[in-house]
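Internal tracking record. Fields below are filled automatically when a chain is submitted to the structure queue. Please do not edit lines marked as system-generated. If the sequence contains nonstandard residues, flag them in the REMARKS field before resubmitting.
Queue: standard
Priority: normal
Entity type: single polypeptide chain
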Amino acid sequence: MQAATLRGSRYLAFAPADAARSAPLLSPINQRRIRTFSANRRAVWSLWLFVILFGLALASDFIANDRPLLASYKGELLVPALVDYPETKFGGFLAQTIYRDPFIADEISTNGWMLWPPIRYGDATVDESLGTSAPAPPSWMLTDEVRCSRYPLGPDDPACRDIGNLHWLGTDDQGRDVVARLFYGFRVSVIFGLLLTIASSVIGVIVGAVQGYFGGWTDLIGQRLLDVWGSMPTLYVLLIISSVLVPGFWVLLFVLILMSWTSLVGIVRAEFLRARNLEYVAAARALGVSNTQIMLRHLLPNAMVATLTFMPFIAGGSVSTLTSLDFLGLGLPAGSPSLGELLNQGKEYLFAPWLSLTSFAVIALILLLFVFIGEGVRDAFDPRRTFAGRA
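SYSTEM-GENERATED OUTPUT FOLLOWS
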């Protein structure tokens, strides 16, 4: 009897700890949302493809670069991809080393070795050894005699036959490799779109929450200010700012955040207006819970359901906005890796279809992935799907 009591007490003593260890990390609702999203195979594959492409774009410096990843020179291990070494280190006289220069390449190869990335061109690298005028067609469309005509040894030159020196999708009008600029342009476009989406969504959620929760004069004045702010023409504002400031990445991002934060205000405002007079909110007020706690812990999670479904589509629109501005010449500074600039070059050089086709394919792929992911997120947060079959 005593042993049974000890075993029972031992079970009772360790049951809470075992239950805590076996408790799921996600709530049942979120588990159902993940299952709903996973059931959409198109959204899952789109998410994985986007993650892979974005990861490759983040590693652009190690995939397409005109500097070696690693180098050994006179017994010293160097990392040219991360560290700027002066040319005087290799017997030259310039402040920055040009590793594609034949003299530097021979000097390092004689006294060590170099490990190059798969593509030996950066986003701004101009190929001085082009066998034809820029924009040059893809290397596989040219004969060896034409492609290698400006190399010292012609078609027999080892540098000409090196895979890393080939232009698989041709060059632009400045002799820069299209594949390298696509990698860097993809990275800039996606990062810009995600930052713009996150920043504008945070501001829009805060403004919509304040308007919807407090209502009254706060909501009325906020709506009138939104009407005035939303009527401001974004293009004219960008023209005025570009005449005063150089439209760099951060300046352009700041201006577009100021002009695009209104996209989610109406959705969040409607959710807070609907839920602010519900019984659980009134009970929280009666218990003395502050307005901030009610907004953050009770109302915001419900409003975020509708907000999250719109964010992938807002991200796609942000990428399209940057592409359009670059196409019109109002976006990033000249020379920056940009998909819109490649589209503009494709319009100017109709005899070089590789410029417009490749940039259009990348832009279409980005938007398509965002749309498919957004559809999956929308289905996952749809209450009719999330709570289907729930007892």
